[in-house]
Input
Amino acid sequence: MTATHLATRRYTVVDSPYGPLTLVATDGVLSGLYMTEQRHRPPEETFGDPDPRPFAETIGQLDAYFAGELREFDLPLHLDGTPFQRSVWEQLRQIPYGETRSYGELAEHLGKPGASRAVGLANGKNPVGIIVPCHRVIGASGSLTGYGGGLDRKQRLLAFENGTGEDTPALF
Output
């Protein structure tokens, strides 16, 4: 007989130039980064108990990113999703800082050239925004299209990364 493991979830809220960010860890590994009013944000009661301890490294890397000192996150992630969603999220992590890709380009990289809509849906369900940079995906025409954290935040994140925005984005 094997014991069933129930995942331990903890969360904390940190300030950022883009508003408060809710960080969620599952068994001590980052599994969520959610903005306020984010589409597909899970209910608060699923985040577990408040506890900042699992997040020291995440907070340090986010602070360095927002200060313009870090361009690539190096954190273990616990990403719950379908195999297709996880493959899309892995492709997102390959988009270099300051660059963008279209949904169609991501679908091509996945070997599924007709799946740009499915890529968009998976992109929208990314549970770890900013660190898994879904904001770097744009429409084929170059339009910003949707963003779970809001188009204003997407525009500001892209401007911050490509150096066309203010050095320190204004707080919400």
Q: What stands out?
A: Confidence is low (pLDDT under 50) at residues 167-172. The CA atoms of residues 103 and 119 lie 6 Å apart.
